[in-house]
Fold these 3 entries.
Entry 1:
Amino acid sequence: MAKVKVGEYREVPEGDMKKFTPKGIPIAVYKLSGQVYATSNICTYDGCFLDENHRMHGYMVECTLHNEQWDIRTGEVVNQPATEKLKAYKAEVVDDDIYVDMI
């Protein structure tokens, strides 16, 4: 896969995330300080959807079921019990549309 349009910039609330499913793959797109980021939308510890069970702490997304956290810029685990990082995707805005590199 390559760069895929997932939605419009205005659809993602500032300081939060929105779920998109390009090519059937559940991803979370975040907007912080006007920048967009994208990761897998599936908790690597529990397998639940992050958009249904989350809290944002700046650049950290927390799964509220077990309190694990990841850095949305890299997908790296910052708080256990999760040990596996989230898949991080490159995201960019072009003419008010959000594109994610699905490679």
Entry 2:
Amino acid sequence: MTARKSLIVCAALALVGAMVAPVERASAVEVTAYTDVSITGASATHVTGVNTAGTISGYYLGGKKGTTVEGFIMTGGVTSVTTVVVATATGTRVNAINDSGTSVGSYVDRKGNEHGFIRTASGAVTVLDDPSLVTKGVHSYGTVATGINSSGVVVGYYYTTGPDKVDSHTYVTHNHGFTRSSAGTFTTYDAPDAADSALPSVGTRLFGINDVGDKVGAYTYNVGPELGPDTRNSGFEVTAGGTFTEIVHPTSTLNACFWTEPHGINDAGLIVGDAGNGCAGTSFGWLLSGGTFTNLVYTDESGEAQYTLANSVNNAGVIGGTWGSGIGETHGYTATIG
């Protein structure tokens, strides 16, 4: 690692399940008022964003077999839901929404490739394909728009899946982050020391941006054989001025099983995301405030959820995410910080 990076690894609170005993800390941020968000008739609902007006973005599994992916915009509760499906797409996801009601997402075409899009509040859709994406000689490819701020600046990532740069007989997904200005100019962003060859997925992905221009994302980098597996999946924040800070949840260790992914950031610098152990198949959401992690646990009258994931946080301190029960239910939720 180089001197240009700083590192956030802090005490965690209220950890999900029995992974680690909770750590008591006076500076903990309280997350309250968890509210279920479920699309009627859907087999699964995911909340990806909430703007300050309370408009919710997300996607759900619908169709006759419950496997069709469709985006949605929700205003005023489940009775006011607009389904978002890009024409000719086999699946559509809405990944974020800003305060003007403009949303971003991605869709899969009939060849299995992915494309980003911007959708205005009135429903006009503009397709986004990163111009740096070279599709020749790859198996599949895509552009994914994941975040948008009030100025219309979009973040996301593009990827190709194809022969590895080291071992051409192995297929690897190579990711690169991007920022798209409101005027339509794309700028590629690769985190310092991001790996460009390994298994199964390498590179940089951007997930969220605030109105200041600070961004959050995740990347893969090489850690060396003395630490076990060769790669690590970590989160990061990069400020509008270019300062890079690695974000690692304290339950993570230096190997390829554990991962940390920041998904959203608001103007106050509050960050939300997920972490987990891919080898054990566990994951949980968290809030990072003032250097302290608070883990998220959706609760209702039936008790705690099996898992609670976090996708966004707005300037009013409202978190949007997904929770799941032990009986196969997957729902969206909103929660309030404070």
Entry 3:
Amino acid sequence: MNRSRAYDIVAEVNEVQWRSSQAREKMVSIMGWARLAARSNDQEYRSKILLDANFLAINTKTLVSLTYVKKIMPQVDVDQMSALLELVNKQIKPQLELPNPNYDGIVSGLEELWPRIVLTTTGNLGNTQKRTADLEQKALYDNFFLAFVFAFAIVIMVTIMALVTHRSKSLYNDQVRQFALLFSHMTFTRISGLSMWMHETLSPEDRPDPALLDMARKRIDDLSVVTDWLARIAYPKFDRDNTPIVALSTILDEMVRSNVAMLRADAKATQLLVPQGQFHLMLQELLRNSKDAVDGVVNPEIIINVQIGHRWSFGRDLIISIEDNGIGMTSDQIKKATTPFFSTKGESRGHSGLGLTGCARLIQTMGGSLAIQSIKGKGTKVTLRCPLSHLPAIRWKHT
């Protein structure tokens, strides 16, 4: 309240000061033009004097009419400004309407008022300025506590921002690390597969099986793709594409085409935008595990379910599950499934035991989780949950 009143007083003082200074300036201007006109008899100066006289009259009339002028100027000063207004309207302006104005008389009239006008317009503001300063000081004291609280809040906000930035960098570094872990697993399995194919199927006498050659080419393509994604994630500032972000449907369509799997998906869920490298790598690894699990099973079946679900807490999740009717796992195997270097397939088949570990850790860096349900001899279901708030964007298509 005091601060607001202080601002009002400052504005009022500035208004009076400005109009007073304008009055002095126009008086000087009129006296100057009138002296030149008296000595040169040049009628050109008449219009200049009239223009300044009209401005002086309007400005002075506004000044003495201000509702708060008497709070800033004593009555005697207001009377002096009124006398100046009367001089302009009743003597100077009528003189300028005559064929031969008495310019010396105009100068004399202004010179007579000049000393009092100077005192009026330059003094008597000290008390008002002091009153304004007192109000400002009181307002400062009244708001000191609020200022302290505000400053403390700023410090807290800066601290929180620093912690969030640090956590964000830490999560990003962890995501790169887990991506690299999963990448190393996939590289190991594909190189092992290529090595086995070269040593066991190639001979100088036999031509390579076209199907096996096609499989080898796919393994090489997989290695090229994941290597490129790893480089993009490691150096995002230099990646012009800023690590590809695609609709989930783009990844799912590719998965269904290249694997014997059925897709059951909610349309809105498939339109979510996701980081291509991370999701492609995780889904590819989980599908590969399911394909290995159903190898040799009569009527093999792999189902990919995609939907958006609600959490117990506030928010929603993208839920992707890959379910098969393969050999399944025991309860002990489920407990160890995400343990580094543990594998139910064995190293002889080219598995490092880092696949599920990499998937679990990678989805965790995105704020999500991986869950495994399995029954020995009946099949396995692996579920990925990722909060929508952790995805790069959400795009809904309107149909």
